[in-house]
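Data availability (excerpt). The following record was deposited with the supplementary files.
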Amino acid sequence: MYQPLTLTGLELIKRGHRFGPTFGARLSNHLPMALSAMQRLGASTEQLNAEYQRASGHLDPLGDALGISSPMLGKKAHNADFVKYYRAMLGEIGTEQTLKTILPTLLAGISAGAFHGVIRLAYAVELDNIDELSHALAYWSSGYTPLGALSFQQNLNAEDDLNHALSLFHDQTYQEGIIIDHVEELITLPTYQVIASQPNSLSLEEVARIVLSHYSASNDFTLLHGVTGFQALISLFPFIENQNLALHYYWQAYVAASCTAVYREPYHYQDHQPCLEGIVDVSHWFQLALETDDDHTIKLTYSCARLYDHLHLDEALFAIKYRLETK
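Predicted structure:
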């Protein structure tokens, strides 16, 4: 079903390493992620080249390293230094050991770039290219956004936890900005401490159903990133020893992001049962996604297909169908 990565795609991604991970007002550079997803969905050489031309025109340069041997998490000015730092580490101990060493620290800042840090890293692992891996790790590290220490509450389920948070922030207004700006503002608000605790037990399937159907109820831009970020995290599980802790960090970030979304209506699973009619032709959906020339649609389609492979939830297929029919 998925097409192999191509030399053309790899060369375009490597050519894009002259650009920084963000541009303008901290907007994410989607180019390497879009090119990777497009290849998996079966994009032609012409489509890959067109995506590079479309996206590269508005990106900012990577910038020079400052010569810092130990760059600091969350320091965006240290991004180019992180690239050098991780390239050296990857060359010395390899991908698997680097990820197993670094991910336990990075997980607390999974909100980085509105989940784009973890998303880019997941694609980079598929690509298995040391340069893209170093850029992806650098993006997550320089954009590292911790949301506070985890705390837990017994006898609380994920649905009730999310709905409590949404009710408290239903009418909250935020300063002008992008998703990560709003999340960073949210955690400074006194009310945030009220929702800081989360269920002491989460299941992968429970979180997946909520994230997928919450998105499909809304087509909300912020919640879309919750889906793609969730799939990216799962794809990195082979390199994460404490997967339960990783899921809790993701849930902390997802609830926070949801409280800043345009759509902040209560979630009730019984109201969001997926309804798939007729024959499901995922390969046809892949082609429809590519024809949109919309990198968010392309990435969501790929992420949901991969989630279905992993968890076999109809909600994942319904989210693809919903996106394609509402674009």
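Summary of structural features: The mean pLDDT is 96.
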